[in-house]
Amino acid sequence: MARESTLRFGAQTDEMTSLLRIVNMVRTGEAATRPEIGRVTGLGRGVVTQRVDHAIEMGYLADGEFGPSSGGRAPRTLRFRGDAGRIVVCALGALHIHVGVALLDGDVVDQEHSPWDIARGPAETLDKALSMIDEVLARTPDVPVWGIGVGLPGPVDFDSGRPVAPPIMPGWNGFDVRRRFEQRYDAPVWVDNDVNLLTFGERARRDDDRLDLIYCKIGSGIGAGLLSHGRIHRGVNGAAGDIGHVRVRDSDALCRCGKVGCLEAVAGGWAMIRDALAEIEAGATGVLTTAVADGEELTPELISIAAENGDALAIRLVQRSARVVGESIAALVNMFNPSVIVIGGAMAGAGELLLAEVRQRVYELSLPLATRDLTIAQSVNDRREPLRGGVEMVREQLFEVTFPRWFSDGRPSVVAIRGALEAVA
Ligand SMILES: [Zn+2]
């Protein structure tokens, strides 16, 4: 089937190419009327009319309102059929599952959230995630699923959709996450690292497709997403941006990855909890000591809130972490020269206290040219960000990467996107 559609596509290359282009122009807002399409593409009026009719017939475009008139008859605007299909996102965290459904134009229209320990393993965790997705999909059962995005809190091989030796996900190494979703929903699935999803979310929010940005997530662990001229940089195996396990100076702290002196073993949320407990043991007093005495479990959130409220121990911990993180980010700034650094994750709740320290280290240690146009900002810290980011990732895969493979079928399919052989293998 994939072969047949390739042949059909091959036989009408010129027509298909301009059709694809026109659908994407309307989808992205580059052109909204037939005369505009003619101006941008240089195609004649008759050809444009024919192509647009074809795109409407295939279900990609529809006629919209009448646009502003430029003297003569007002041209009718076109709109992309964002309601023709929907995109499902499943964002797994270390301690929660968040699922959402969006229209093809990117708006998240429904969601479900549940606390969950990812260490329960892939079988049980995905059963739970799939039942949550079923529940959300059942609320609007008539719209087909066009694509699914999955985010995992660990390194992911993007091509195969499998996690690779994730430190906090026992039992997940090499698990075929994609297949579970593909079999259930018969739709193409892309699996990515959770920080990459957050990075896509920033790109969508800033609406800048040429952004050079580093998203640094400081939660229990530490990771980064890299946006190079608007494109996610995943590296050859999907390991790019995994700065949590880069070695820092003067540390012999044992990391949960098994190595010694990693950034997150010094500055990650779990390391701060370790240090807080040691200081409390040694007699430190304050909010955190009281919390522990009351039987509360220390979390990165708790420490960041205590720091923001002025607790001396929490402030010390946050500042120490921020200084070390700032050093690692400074090295990235020299190498990568981004225009924006976004600090997110549970520790970002400490706000200006954390940012000020990171800024100071970055400006101290980076080259002047690399920081001339640099902004360091806090993330919006909205729980829905991974969902928005997942939708953005799937939209990119559907309409910018794989569109020619399934366009002539009218909607995406696993077979058209992955190839018939791989789909049945
Ligand atoms: Zn490590």
UniProtKB/TrEMBL annotation:
Q: Which InterPro entries match?
A: ATPase_NBD, ROK, ROK_cs, WH-like_DNA-bd_sf, WH_DNA-bd_sf
Domain of life where this protein originates: Bacteria
Q: Which family does it belong to?
A: Belongs to the ROK (NagC/XylR) family.
The name of this protein is: N-acetylglucosamine repressor
Q: Which gene encodes it?
A: nagC_5
